[in-house]
Write a structure and sequence with these properties.
Blueprint: E1 5-10, H1 17-26, E2 31-36, H2 37-41, E3 52-55, H3 69-77, H4 86-95, E4 99-103, H5 105-113, E5 128-131, E6 139-147, E7 161-168, E8 172-175, H6 178-186, E9 190-196, E10 201-202, E11 217-221, E12 227-230, H7 256-268
Parallel strand pairs: 1-2, 1-3, 3-4, 4-12
Antiparallel strand pairs: 5-8, 6-7, 6-9, 9-10, 9-11, 11-12
Bound molecules: glutamine.
Keywords: ATP-binding, Cytoplasm, Glutamine amidotransferase, Hydrolase, Ligase, Nucleotide-binding, Purine biosynthesis
Organism: Desulfoplanes formicivorans
GO molecular function, one term: hydrolase activity
């Protein structure tokens, strides 16, 4: 049984690292560390010592240039003190069968880096972006979601509907072309969609869909299913009392269920 070692990466304005690390531990991670991006540069921590990486939510570089844009350039062009490229570190991590979860700002980073959706196996090529919500404001509330049962995603396996909080200003998915949107559907890379709770169907309608994302896209996976990025915050629903109606006896599946599924996948390797 593989030991699950989780690395949560922070720095430059990320602010959900502690909650994400807490949720990973709740979900069963055997060891969970928080590292600054600069720790990776200094080689105090190395991605390849871990098999689960979390890119948490926050405001990388204050959302200047667009959410996670500058951070994507740092990952692409910076090297560690002994000259290893951080992009190569990510490539080595993926080659070693590790799993990656990007939450909100972390999802924005993964799409800007081209790690998601990597349709057609084209990793590190930017195929989609996440931009300003149609409402032109920050949206902060809970949303209903459905998981795609046909998606290869290891995090959503066996999960159906979820109810999770969102809090973002740039969550609308913009595809490079119509062709990319078709590829996402054909390869089942759309792992999570916003739904209208009345019909259970994916929706583009506000406010059920908080940002206007086409096809109700809330989360994407890659062709291997080992990377998940999503706009909602599963780590923020780590206990029944986080549910807005828990005092009225209402709770739903915890957000940490996504992390649990990812961890179960690693244990089976
Ligand atoms: N909660 C978050 O991670 C927010 C992400 C980003 N800063 C946005 O507003 O879109």
């Amino acid at each position: 049984m593989a030991k699950v070692k989780t690395l949560v990466i922070t720095g430059y304005g990320t602010n959900c690292e502690k909650e994400s690390a807490f949720a990973a531990t709740q979900a069963g991670s055997d060891q969970t560390d928080i590292a600054y991006f600069s720790d990776l540069v200094a080689e105090t921590y190395s991605l390849t010592d871990y098999n689960f990486i979390i890119f948490p939510g926050g405001f990388l570089d204050g959302d200047e240039l667009g959410a996670a844009q500058a951070a994507a350039l740092r990952w692409r062009y910076m090297k560690t003190v002994s000259g290893i490229s951080l992009e190569d570190e990510l490539k080595n991590f993926l080659a070693s069968q590790g799993i990656i979860l990007g939450i909100c700002n972390g999802f924005q980073l993964l799409v800007k880096l081209g790690l998601l959706p990597a349709a057609g196996g084209r990793y590190f090529e930017r195929q989609v972006s996440l931009s300003h919500n149609d409402s032109a404001r920050f949206e902060d509330r809970w949303v209903h979601l459905v998981c795609n049962p046909d998606s290869p995603c290891v995090f959503t396996k066996g999960l159906d509907q979820l109810y999770l909080p969102v809090r973002h200003g740039e969550g609308k998915l913009i595809a490079k072309s119509e062709q990319v949107l078709t590829e996402l559907q054909q390869a089942n890379l759309i792992a999570l969609q916003y739904i209208d709770p009345q019909t259970g169907q994916p929706t583009q309608k506000y406010p059920e869909n908080p940002n206007g994302s086409p096809l109700g896209i809330a989360g994407l996976t890659d062709p291997s299913g080992r990377i998940l990025g999503l706009m909602p915050h599963p780590e923020a629903y780590n206990h029944p009392t986080n549910h807005p109606a828990w005092t009225r006896g209402k709770t739903t599946m915890l957000g940490t269920a996504l992390m649990e599924r990812g961890i179960q996948y690693l244990r089976r390797l």
